[in-house]
Amino acid sequence: MSTSSNLGFRSDRGPILIALMLSTSLIALDSTILATAVPSIVQDLGGLTQFPWLFSVYLLAQAVSVPVYAKLADTVGRKPVILVGIALFLVGSILCGFAWDMSSLIVMRALQGLGAGAVLPMTTTIAADIYTVAERAKTQGYIASVWAVSSVVGPTLGGVFSQFASWRWIFFVNIPFCLLAAAMLWRNYDESVERRRHRIDYAGAAVLTVALTLLILAVLEGGQAWAWSSWQSIGSFAVGAVLLGIFGVIERRVPEPVLPLEVLTRRLIVATCLIGIGIGAVLVGLTSYVPTFLERSTSATPIVAGLAVAALTIGWPISASQSGRLYMRIGFRPTALIGLVIATVGALLLWLTSSTPNVWATAGSCLVVGLGLGLVATPTLIAAQASVPWNERAVVTGTNMFMRSVGSAVGVAIFGAIANAVIAARGGDASSEAVQAGSTAVFLAVLVAAAASIVVGLLMPHTRAEDVEGVQGDRDADSSDFDSPAADTADSADADRVPQPSTTPTTG
């Protein structure tokens, strides 16, 4: 089966690809549209001191729910999980639009985050189910391009709604996208899952959720809402760590663990998860500090500063869509290492040019970093997905994405501490020179994170695409023992494809 003739919007799987892109756009737009509307929201609802929670509670709810959704998807199928996620996001968006004060808006944002926790991992998992290893890079490029478009469209829409209509429309605009994405998935995506009685790991899911909530909350709020040495910080870390230990004990005793610990002992999975932490740290370092750096050091407008960061999300899908050519020829590990080196070079350029601030130099550096990350994120995720059978694929995908969230959370804490220390020592945030110095210090930390990821990349086993294709084919063929769809539907024309479960698109 020719790859080129079976990809794109006009192929038999095209409607599903469009639905996955629409689903991704919900999260991508939401992550970029809100920031520009914050002043209008605060002016209308008040709660200036509370508004950072609009972002924190969303990220927290999204991160802690991913492992649970991932296990459910491997148990009952992807379709019900992603539809539930879209429904939660839709209800949360509507309620956000009708929020009457900042506290109610924060609560509704948590509901949105719970929806996002299901949508993002399911889009990449479904793509892994219906596309071969060779095809996935290009389809991930399609999905990644949604982020590039959203990075430009989101802030623009947020500004337009705030200035000419009402900030409430930044939430109401999600309604048609949610309905269209759900309708297309309902109509075009069909999967057959072997039905049997499951013993759901409620205890493990509850303990893991509370543990992750405490740990991520401690990282996000440490040094901000409370001091690192405060009882709140120490207590959150301590209780969260103890609960993680209890979670490990529970998972070893239950027949169907929410997070199979054996999966996390495989070298490839561990290496790709650690790389995910590095990706998350690099991303949050650039997206959080580049705009402020340019606005304060070059007097760039927020739109110009935002477009400089958008260069990162433009480079990412370009290289991601072409990464398949590389990993099919030289393997996953060399491809990821090439991407890590390119991303590190971009971070180095950003750090070197920050001493003489220039919008074009900063945007160019972000573009290089994005080109590098596209060659890292996509191949490492695809390698991890292809190394496991259907009944573990969502868990592996969710774990990889969760580790990126961990990297972002830890990055926010470390970069914030570095920036605050440098800015305080240089005269405070009223000084543009101090802000520039603080941003430069953060860019150096980003460079260190990127360089450390190269070391982690060396830990990946040298795996070629045809190796994991064969492994995945064998495991998918045997996966009915673990409540996965039967993998016997491939016909002779599909002999060069990775054997897939009976998760087949229907266009009628």
Automatic annotation (TrEMBL):
InterPro entries: MFS, MFS_dom, MFS_trans_sf. It comes from the Bacteria. Residues 468-508 are annotated as: Disordered. It is found in: Cell inner membrane. The chain crosses the membrane at residues 51-69, 81-100, 106-130, 142-161, 167-188, 200-220, 226-247, 268-287, 299-318, 330-353, 359-384, 405-425, 437-459. SUPFAM superfamilies: MFS general substrate transporter. GO terms for molecular function: transmembrane transporter activity. This is MFS transporter. GO terms for cellular component: plasma membrane. Residues 482-492 have a biased composition (Low complexity). It is a multi-pass membrane protein. It comes from Terrabacter aerolatus. Belongs to the major facilitator superfamily. TCR/Tet family. The keyword Cytoplasm does not apply. Residues 16-464 form the Major facilitator superfamily (MFS) profile domain.
